DNA sequence: ATAGGGTTAG
């Protein structure tokens, strides 16, 4: 472009920068800008806004504000696009208060007229920062002004309300937006359907789906997957299968989420053979994934961390652990730093392959790499240690979790119980169960069923010799209660 | 189609 005659315009250079940003190569875009700038290419306010956006997306909003100086130096006025970008940058950098301040300043000093992108940026920023109710109030405020929130802003708040367990408020907001003449779309409905299912409100979910149909909003793959998941979580695999059937009748293909969900469902109700079959029908696709990866490299598209993690996942699921390790080294050589997800995947693969010792070594090496294990990772390694009978070590990790900023969750206790019961360590399971209750959690379906089975087995055997485990009766009855509840 | 925005499922 630099050698072309006539010279490309600022518009052409901006198109180039935009394309690089779309590929998420923000640092590359910034380097390119520096280089262009030094070579005297034209710079417009569009260019500068692209640069600010790059800094924001790299969590360097501070540098973004520094670019504002260039605006004034060149006699450009920052406009609504520039300010909206900066507000987004502040939210991305967790500077919620500053973001709110800047927004208020825009209004108070009339620096620019906010538009629907600005509104969405503020609403979304607040929701993502966990300030759902502030966002909700602000939405109500905007409704009374000339700045009208669009369907995306409503969707964001409705989804956040559902996630924060305020499903009735979400339903009210849904009614309100319809009342205001803003048509909910499939995303709006999916959020609320999911919210209702999460709280077992099947009747309401069903009514809502009827309303969707009435409003001519057609169900999509995500809607069906939400329903498949809801049935699976209830152990109603047959009904989940029916949903998939209906989905296919409508010429919609189940996707990878549908499969995973179903595999979980089958495992939950103990139909391991079906889960296995479904799972076996999938890994063949890894070869396709690898092929795509090679094509990608041939096309000079730079694979990112997510690409590597995805392929690593494929290798681990296929128990190709050695290949997974060499893959890890390849990504390091390419300068792609593995993150905690990379190691979670690898350690999960090692554990599944019965290589707990190696998994533990990798796990212990994480702090030197500057990586802090998350709850998920603790759960993987603790569950696996329990299953291998290394209960003491697992307990040490439980204590370690409590001390670090990584509190055990319900799943932590469940994996421990699953693990120790597989080794028939009933007393250990009982201790864990008590601790679990103390922490305000309850056992999941698998823990409860396994406990019941083991207790009944002990009951049969001890009855013969006239020995009774002290808490036997209460344990059996509580285990039965879980089972009934399920 | 020169710059800024978003949401739902595993």
Automatic annotation (TrEMBL):
Record key words, sorted: Repeat
Ranges occupied by PPR repeats: 150-184, 185-219, 220-254, 255-285, 304-338, 339-373, 374-408, 409-443
InterPro entries the UniProt entry points to: PPR_rpt, TPR-like_helical_dom_sf
Pfam families noted in UniProt: PPR_2 (PF13041)
Keyword Repeat applies: yes
Keyword Repeat applies: yes
Gene3D superfamilies on file: Tetratricopeptide repeat domain (1.25.40.10)
Family: Belongs to the PPR family. P subfamily.
Protein name per its UniProtKB record: Pentatricopeptide repeat-containing protein, mitochondrial
